[in-house]
TrEMBL record:
Residues engaged in binding ATP: 138, 142, 188, 193, 207-209, 231-236, 281, 432
Top-rank taxon, per record: Eukaryota
Compartments reported by the entry: Mitochondrion inner membrane; Mitochondrion matrix
GO molecular function: ATP binding; ATP hydrolysis activity; ATP-dependent protein folding chaperone; protein kinase binding; unfolded protein binding
Coiled-coil region list: none
Keywords: Acetylation, ATP-binding, Chaperone, Membrane, Mitochondrion, Mitochondrion inner membrane, Nucleotide-binding, Phosphoprotein, Transit peptide
Chief place of localization: mitochondrion
Gene expressing this chain: LOC114343618
CC annotations in GO: mitochondrial inner membrane; mitochondrial matrix
Family matches, as SMART domains: HATPase_c
Protein name listed in UniProt: Heat shock protein 75 kDa, mitochondrial
Quaternary structure and partners: Binds to the intracellular domain of tumor necrosis factor type 1 receptor. Binds to RB1. Interacts with SRC. Interacts with SDHA.
Similarity field: Belongs to the heat shock protein 90 family.
Gene3D superfamilies xrefs: 3.30.230.80, 3.40.50.11260, Heat shock protein 90, C-terminal domain, Histidine kinase-like ATPase, C-terminal domain
Length: 730
């Protein structure tokens, strides 16, 4: 309530008084008082932004003016409770029937859960997956698992291996479509199934034969790098999303008899012996009338390319091989050529350029990660700059696509990076469409982000000229990462990549914050100055004093550069300070003992300062003299210049001029040695009208020089008035 009282225009002092009174009435208001005084202890602009943000929050949540004595309904109950002055919630008479009176007696009997099979099958087949097309991914994955089981048994050396030693055939997956009969057939040359397998694997929902096989080989300590995908035992039933009927023909390797399994998804299935069944499994899907598009060659080709283009075995569609692109992220980096990288980058990004940088990354600690990341050569367009742009990272697990655009694998500011991340440790939900276990996904994100930042730092050291070209195109993303990041380690790591011009280097030569520190003396401060160009920076009144002391200063030419450094606050324990703030807080700047004979006397300075304050009125918080200026007559300082300039660019149009000056609270600092200031002192007595015009024009010029005027053209009228008055005697 106190904060609401303040931000609804009642002023800080009244709010503080109101706060003290309410604490006496209700001790629980004490925490609100602490919040209020905590915000009031911030700098003026930080305080302004905090209150302004809170005001927007209360407005968005339907808070009415606190002076009206009521707060309307609000979706955010926590915020409403925070701002409430109610001493305690309304308490009704206590009523409960819960009592600990129960005590088991007799022996317990154990029963198994039962399920309505038809209803369960309907849920799995029709409610589990968001897209019908994923049934193709699921059946191809099952076929791939059958081939992987065959490969394992062929080299395992156990009893099962003897059955397949004489089997000589290519391990492949084939898909055929038949528009006329409205069918799609998927066949593999894998391990096949016995009658018992058909009953246990297809007749029991959510029993995974692949998962059981993995557990079996783990027990034999021979799991190694298995490529088996299945784990839930529900993928096969996705076929009923599109099928009126599903027929499965299968013959296990080493068996003479094949079998046909058939079901229409109604809750029952039939199994019968069948002749002419090849080793492996063939699934014939009789499509529903409204799913006839899945009997189309092009439709299936697009789905295969989207989800299953990197399965480990050859995949044929109507006799033509479709998976011709290799999963390069699983290859050894030294064996992949630049041409292969170029082709793969174009394939996954849909671009026509080539990658500028390539990061081929493999690790098994702390997670199993196989990643291939590309940094584009071309400049980002307006669409790519938008934070609404989707991530360019495709997420795979064991070469099967899980999500084509995965936003939470890399932070939003790295959305320009294209590539593939494959991890066996990724926790998936039942449909393999959503990620689970946010802590593990967060760990994956942290590992990848740290590696990307380290990689870019390596490129900066290895070839600064090439990195500078990259930074020119993509530096804005790095700055966004610093501003939006709450992880201080990640924020400072990204700060290693920033580039600036320096007062100690030639124009166009860029330096890093580390370069600055390497040249620094005992001073634990990194100085920076924001200006549109180097010429303006070197001629800035704020730079004069540091220049005379030969203090290195970083030049920020882009409007957001100073916001980045203001948000960063420090780098490796060294404070980042704008030269404007340094001038305002310099206690020695007001030391006027050694001004010399060419300066106004102290009494004259005091008289002139008071007179200027009177003429400028509420536009200035104070008028003082400074000893830090040499060639400039005056300067304007505010508490947080970067925040002030950001306010002018983004919000000043919504407030009046008087309110704007009240918010900025500029301090007008004059140079008592400058001829213009000394002349103004003379005009104060001889021609006060001209002196006043001069004082106002100098103040306006200083506001322009500080970047605190949105449109300098507004000063033309006052400038013309000054010229008219100055030329009256000529």
């Amino acid at each position: 309530m106190i904060i609401c009282y303040f931000i609804n225009g009642n002023g800080a002092s009244k709010a503080q008084g109101k706060c003290q009174n309410l604490v006496k009435i209700n001790p629980k208001i004490k925490i609100i008082q602490k919040i209020f005084f905590g915000i009031m202890s911030l700098s003026r602009f930080s305080r302004l932004l905090a209150f302004r943000h809170l005001r927007l929050v209360t407005r968005n949540h339907n808070f009415t003016n606190i002076n009206s004595g009521r707060i309307s309904s609000c979706g955010n109950q926590n915020l409403r409770r925070l701002l409430s002055t109610q001493t305690s919630p309304n308490e009704d008479e206590h009523h409960s029937i819960i009592k600990d009176t129960e005590k088991p007696t007799g022996e317990s009997t154990k029963y198994e859960f039962k399920a309505e099979t038809k209803m369960l099958l309907d849920i799995v087949a029709r409610s589990l997956y968001s897209e019908k097309e994923v049934f193709i991914r699921e059946l191809i994955s099952n076929a791939s698992d059958a081939l992987e089981k065959f490969r394992y048994l062929a080299v395992s050396g156990d009893e099962s291996a003897k059955k397949i030693q004489d089997v000589d055939r290519p391990l492949e997956i084939h898909i055929s479509t038949d528009k006329q009969n409205r069918t799609i057939t998927i066949q593999d040359t894998g391990i096949g199934m016995t009658k018992e397998d058909l009953i246990s694997h297809l007749g029991i929902i959510a029993k995974s034969g692949s998962k059981a096989f993995i557990e079996q080989i783990k027990e034999k300590a021979a799991a190694g790098d298995n490529n088996i995908i299945g784990q839930f035992g529900v993928g096969f039933y996705s076929s009923f999303m599109v099928a009126d009927k599903v027929d499965v023909y299968s013959r296990a390797v080493g068996e003479e008899t094949g079998y046909k399994w058939s079901s229409d998804g109604s809750g029952t299935y039939e199994i019968q012996p069948a002749e002419g069944v090849q080793n492996g499994t063939k699934i014939v899907i009789h499509l529903k009338a409204d799913c006839r598009e899945f009997a189309d060659d092009d439709t299936i080709k697009n789905v295969v390319n989207k989800y299953s283009n990197f399965v480990g075995s050859p995949l044929y569609l109507n006799g033509k091989k479709t998976n011709i692109v290799q999963p390069l992220w699983l290859s050894d980096a030294k064996n992949v050529t630049a041409q292969q990288h170029n082709e793969f980058y174009r394939y996954i990004s849909g671009s026509y350029d080539v990658p500028r940088y390539t990061l081929h990354y493999k690790t098994d600690v702390p997670l199993s990660i196989r990643a291939l990341l590309y940094f584009p050569e071309g400049k980002p367009g307006l669409f790519e700059m938008s934070r609404e742009t989707e991530s360019g990272i495709a997420l795979y697990t064991k070469k099967i696509l899980i999500k084509n655009r995965t936003d939470n694998i890399l932070p939003k500011w790295l959305r320009f990076v294209k590539g593939v991340v494959d991890s066996e440790d990724i926790p998936l939900n039942l449909s393999r469409e959503l990620l689970q276990n946010s802590a593990l996904i967060g760990k994956l994100r942290d590992v990848l982000t740290a590696r990307v930042l380290k990689f870019l730092q390596e490129q900066l050291k290895k070839n600064p000229e090439e990195y500078e070209k990259f930074y020119k195109d993509y530096g804005l993303f790095i700055k966004e990462g610093i501003i939006t990041n709450y992880n201080m380690t990640e924020k400072e790591s990204a700060a290693n990549l920033l580039l600036f011009e320096s007062s100690h280097e030639a124009p166009e030569k860029k330096v890093t914050l580390n370069d600055y520190l390497a040249r620094a003396t005992d001073n634990r401060t990194i100085y920076y100055l924001a200006a549109p160009s180097r010429t303006l920076a070197e001629n800035s009144p704020y730079y004069e004093s540091l220049k005379s002391r030969k203090q290195e200063v970083l030049f920020c030419y882009e409007p957001y550069d100073e916001l980045v450094l203001m948000q960063l606050q420090q780098f490796k324990g060294n404070k980042l300070v704008s030269v404007e703030k340094d001038m305002r807080e310099d206690k020695n700047a007001n030391d006027l003992t050694n001004l010399g004979d060419d300066s106004l006397k102290r009494s004259e300075i005091n008289d002139l300062s008071a007179w200027i304050k009177e003429k400028l009125g509420d536009k200035v918080a104070a008028v003082t003299a400074t000893s830090r200026l040499e060639s400039h007559p005056c300067v304007v300082t505010v508490e947080e210049m970067a925040a002030a300039r950001h306010f002018i660019r983004t919000q000043s149009h919504s407030v009046s001029e008087d309110r704007r000056y009240a918010i900025l609270q500029p301090k007008f600092e004059i140079n008592p040695k400058h001829p213009i200031i000394k002349k103004m002192y003379t005009l104060m007595g001889t021609n006060p009208v001209l002196g006043e015009l001069l004082a106002k024009q100098l103040f306006a010029n200083s506001m322009v020089g500080a970047g605190l005027v949105e449109d300098p053209r507004t000063l033309l009228t006052s400038m013309n008035d000054l010229l008219v008055k100055a030329l009256e005697k000529h």
